[in-house]
Amino acid sequence: MKMRKNIFFLLLSLFLFSLPIFKAQGANDLLSILKHVDSIMVEDNAKYKLRMAVTRGDKTVEYEMTLWSKGRNFVARTEKPIAQKGQVFLINNNNCWTYYPNINKSVKTSQNQRLLGGDFSFTDLASVNLIEDYDSEFYKLRKEDIWEMPLVDGEFEELIEKGVTLQCLAKEGRTVTYPKVMVFIDESGNPVRLDFFTISGQLLGVLFYQDYGNLGGKEKPLTMVMRASLNSANYTTITHLEANYDLNVPQIYFTEAYMKNLSIGR
Hints:
Blueprint: H1 2-18, H2 21-25, H3 30-41, E1 43-56, E2 59-71, E3 73-80, E4 88-92, E5 95-100, E6 105-109, H4 122-126, H5 130-133, E7 134-138, H6 143-148, H7 154-162, E8 164-170, E9 180-185, E10 191-197, E11 203-215, E12 218-227, E13 234-244, H8 259-263
Antiparallel strand pairs: 1-2, 1-13, 2-3, 3-4, 4-5, 5-6, 7-8, 8-9, 9-10, 10-11, 11-12, 12-13
């Protein structure tokens, strides 16, 4: 009898060990889930090479960029096409600027400003701070609720049923771009979709995290798709080409005064 019990507990241990991290931590561990989501979206020191494709109907314009991040601060330089080469975007402590090399001037802008005529804003690239700025809770969606959402198919319905959904409401007194965020997490604990709303419940945009894979030695979404309208023909896709986390990005990179230096490739 004792041997049977030992075998049972051994098999149970092996089963639990084989579960995805999300399941092993427990679906009720909200803070652990939020920290994991944050680790997917934010890096303390990173340099990325990425391609951004802005699609409007049957027309797509592509840009290539270099982006440096330090937490939720980032600075990005446009490399291609030649018409926008050297344009620099900076967000530092929620203050945003765009540097235009053709007029040799940086212009302060808002976090809602869209980059290069696409659907990603400064906030979308810097990432919302779900831990600090929001009160989050698990949210149970009924099947009819799922199919009332835009951009839903059978695969997404299955994903929601196997994963979890979080409702995140801005904390009182916090100034945020999106007062309400719905976060959809797959069974591995990875965010796959974020829906952004006004305080009245109007949908402002949908951000998809797709194609999880190896990016610079870490598992990350290789593709992000932002839809700022419900027009299915209009969207912006960011594809990560390279990533380097083994560096210390100089703090001076994240200053308005240094934007001109970055523009010319220093």
